[in-house]
Amino acid sequence: MRWDFNPFYTLVIVVIASGGIPKGYDEGGYSGSVTLPSFRADFNLVPSDWAGDAAGLANRIANITSFNVLGAALGALVVLYLNDRLGRLVAWRLACIVWASGTLVQIFSSGIYGLLLFSRIWGGLGAGGLTVTSPLYLSEIAPTKTRGRAVGLYMILLLASLAIGFFINYGASTHMSVTRTQYRLVQAIALIPVGVAFGLSYICPESPRYLASKQLHQAGLEALARLRGKDTYDPSIVEEFETIDAQVREQASDLASVSHWAIFKETQRNPNYRQRFWLLMTMQTIAQWTGGNGITYYVTSIFKYAGLTGSAQSLISSGAYGITKLVFTVAFSWGLIDLIGRRRCALAGLSLQLAAHVYTGIYMGLRPESARNQNASNAAVASVFVYAVGWSIGLCTIPYLYGTEIFPTRIRNVSYAISMALHWFFQFAVVRVTGDMFVSLDVWGAYLFWALICFLGIIILGIWMPETKGVPIERMGDLFEGPWYLRWRARPRECVVASSSSTATETVASKDNIPKSRDSAF
């Protein structure tokens, strides 16, 4: 069956995946607009006005850049309540409204520094909420065989908006006069595609798994049939929904009657859930501290360290960096992730990141004169792109997908939201400290630190991370039976066979004697 090519289903995937645009455009479009002369003049960021206080200027720029990330960390937690109480689709729309309102305020803050910081945090709340709700919804409506492609489209649109943002800044700096209109136009561009997606969201159905968890079984069946482009009585639809619905009916209470704190405690008391929860937290930690988004925010400066000269050349190279991430994320999402699997991609990506960091660290440590060592300089520039490839096929996307597919619906929202809050808090920390690391560790020390994290990540995830390719969400618990250090031996094919032969729900009993379905759709 080619469910993923159903026109309506494809439209729904694109609409909800557009929730990645706010985050991506902030990293490419907004972060670039901070360097525009019109923005610098409006918000007192001209270096000559800060003579003798370079640290003060750096902190002011860092606050403007990173406060959106801080707001996003809070938004990932706030959306916890909305996802379960109002539904994935309503929560998605509310997050869009919050982000758009914050964006409009920051566009017209007109040099008022305090108002700008408030709007950055407020808009970040919406952007953070979208990073939770969009992948969550996509993973819940996608067929098992193409779940990676569905969630991967979220990252594709995120990175596409990031890459486009660099070039929009280049165009504005080259062809527009230095007025407020220059930076306002750059910052407003993302409102257009997100606004269109917001309008189209009203033809999208709610997640069938969420509807089933709210005891709205007929509505869930109808939503699934619409997504698959079939009738509600089609055998394949009935079979797929029965796998979801049968598990839900075994639960005595629905999501609204259980507090988030109680669900969190359940994830820690149940050994099977606990393994999954802490694996995802570890994955998010490794992802950010290997350089992660910090390099994206400082990529223009990194190219200058590597020997490129001229702001225009660095900005164009930054755009090429964004395109590289986009191209390989597309290859990852539409091929590698569902072909060779999540585990192999993560380890291959970390290996490429490690190699790139080692060379760049050596280059930055030796500091050869680029005029006399052009080959070394070119290799340093190339290593930035090697890093981009590794990041794109590995931990750039996998935590989004992994976090939405390894948990049953009962604990998925809480566990994934916490992981995304951790993601945003770490991204905030990385963005804030990367500039200081370049200064205090003389650049090469930062790369040594990132290389060490990559090395540890290869070992830790190589042991702890099982393959989830092709495993139905309802059977993920089978992969996490037994000691955590044996996860590398997990056999996903056995879970697929077990799922196809039976829809019966097995039970995982925690040491607190709390019987829970190993992986119910609830």
At the fourth CATH level, what is the homologous superfamily? MFS general substrate transporter like domains
- State the CATH class: Mainly Alpha
The 3D shape can be described as: globular
The total count of strands amounts to 2
Instruction: Give the integer mean of the pLDDT values.
Output: 83
The assigned structural class equals mainly alpha
Q: What's the end-to-end separation, in Å? A: 26 Å
Helical percent range?
over 70%
- Largest beta-sheet characterization: 2 strands, antiparallel
Q: What CATH architecture would you give?
A: Up-down Bundle
Order of helices and strands: HHHHHHHHHHHHHHHHHHHHHHHEE
Strand order, largest beta sheet: 1-2
Proportion of residues in β-strands: under 5%
Q: Can you tell me the residue ranges where pLDDT is under 50 for at least 5 consecutive residues?
A: 252-256, 499-522
The CATH topology corresponds to Growth Hormone, Chain: A
* Whole-angstrom Rg: 23 Å
Summed up, the helix count is: 23
